[in-house]
Design a protein that fits this description.
Shape: globular
Largest sheet: 5 strands, antiparallel
Distance between the termini: 86 Å
Helix content: 25-40%
Strand content: 25-35%
Radius of gyration: 25 Å
Oligomer: single chain
Structural class: alpha+beta
Strand order of the largest sheet: 5-4-12-11-10
Length: 435
């Protein structure tokens, strides 16, 4: 395909950083596929000069890549009305993480092996049932794990937060065993909790029998379910985004003289706003990738299962998602949302402001009124109140389901009324309303 059309620029990785990240030829390591190629040129300031494809909007890719023709994949059916026919994945989906709305799908509810994308649920369950500073004891089962590991040894003691970060960055099967035993006593018991949590989230066609993703006929999920699970993590679980978006880090317990870990998820370098989430590969599962990206306050999640070119597929999915949904800011951080009554307070009420930006995704034809706003007031809100105190929450619902929330903060101090003023106002009310 000829590459021509409007030229645009991304301020991004300099040549040396790019070479360090991907190797001089920018060929990504097996088994994740070497489908990306270098940008056509780099200027002296380290800007990638990237041309968009004729007739198509710019991509979110950090540097140029050539779409590759979908190979002949036995058994793969692509519908004539498929809007991204070049995808090589057997199952794919891109979802708005806030609402759970599907923006594109291909065979998204077909059961497939998830490989190490399983670890997304391991992470969620661990974060919800432990604290980052808990010390995890590494036992013999973890130290003897098969497959990819963090080189943990029997007797190691590692903070939970560090162990989970290493687990997601390097796909450590040993770490998943240690986490499972720490929280549930055994991998079997932990896997049952994983399946229960999946059902609670809405992932009805998912079954986990281990914490790592090693192949088992009874260990399966769907692209749709994985998108739901990852979306839940971004939306509801503290520290989830922080962990899955970590590119590089050093820990003293790493069994390497550099003490350095680098994330295997190349999307963190390949796509603007990328902030997660997990790669996976087994012979039965094929190449799998769950990706997350945030642009203009909108968080999207894409999933490809059994993909030949998983990086290109994921870039195409996220591009499609961001091109078909637009951000609308309802309230900026610090903007007044409403006023709340304050018992025993001078003035009787206080204006409250949003703690963070409140942004909603809108597709063509949608309006703000499609989202309902709900104010949750703090129980027994009474004076004194100090500016900045959390006094409630603003919750947005889409089609009856909560999708976005932010704290509401008092915009000013509210002092407590004096006893004399309270008595005087009570007498006034009695005079107006009668005994």
């Amino acid at each position: 395909m000829n590459r021509k059309g409007r030229r645009y620029f991304f301020r991004g990785l300099k040549g040396t950083a790019l070479a360090a990240a991907f190797g001089a030829s920018i060929v990504l390591p097996s088994p994740y596929g070497g489908d990306l190629v270098p940008a056509e040129a780099w200027d002296g300031n380290g800007s990638a000069q990237v041309e968009d494809l004729e007739g198509k909007p710019p991509s979110g890719a950090v540097f140029g890549y050539h779409p590759i023709a979908r190979p002949d994949i036995p058994g793969l059916y692509v519908s004539p009305d498929d809007e991204i026919p070049e995808l090589s994945a057997r199952s794919a989906v891109v979802m708005d993480a806030g609402t759970g709305r599907v923006l594109y799908a291909r065979d998204m509810k077909a059961r497939r092996f998830p490989a190490s994308t399983t670890k997304i649920m391991t992470l969620i369950l661990a974060l919800e049932n432990s604290s980052p500073d808990e010390i995890v004891h590494i036992g013999p089962h973890a130290a003897g794990a098969e497959g990819s590991t963090l080189w943990l040894q029997d007797g190691d003691e590692i903070p939970m937060g560090e162990l989970l970060t290493g687990m997601m960055m390097r796909s450590g099967n040993d770490a998943t065993i240690a986490v499972a035993e720490h929280i549930a006593g055994s991998v079997d018991a932990f896997a049952k909790k994983m399946t229960e949590k999946a059902k609670e989230i809405g992932a009805e066609d998912t079954s986990f029998v281990n914490s790592s993703g090693l192949p088992d006929e009874n260990h399966y999920t769907t692209a749709y379910d994985l998108a739901l699970i990852a979306s839940y993590g971004y939306r509801e679980v503290p520290h989830f985004e922080e962990i899955v978006s970590t590119k590089e880090i050093e820990y003293p317990w790493v069994k390497d003289e550099t003490k350095h870990l680098r994330n295997e998820n190349q999307m963190l370098w390949l796509y603007r706003g990328a902030n997660g989430v997990k790669t996976g590969y087994t012979e039965k599962a094929g190449r799998c990738l769950v990706s997350g990206a945030k642009q203009n306050g909108l968080q999207l999640v894409s999933v490809v299962l059994d993909s030949t070119y998983m990086w290109n597929d994921s870039i195409a999915l996220l591009d499609y998602g961001f091109q078909h949904v637009k951000a609308r800011t309802l309230f900026k951080a610090g903007e007044t949302v409403t006023s709340l009554s304050v018992r025993k307070g001078k003035g009787g009420s206080v204006p409250v402001v949003a703690a963070s930006d409140v942004i909603i995704p809108l597709q063509d034809g949608e309006q703000e009124k499609d989202y309902e706003k709900h104010i949750e007031m703090r129980k027994n809100l009474q004076a004194p109140v100090r500016a900045g105190d959390v006094v409630g929450r603003l919750v947005l619902t889409y089609q009856g389901k909560p999708c976005y929330a932010t704290d509401l903060l008092a915009s000013r101090d509210v002092e407590k009324k004096s006893l004399f003023r309270t008595i005087w106002q009570t007498l006034q009310n009695i005079g107006r309303n009668g005994l």
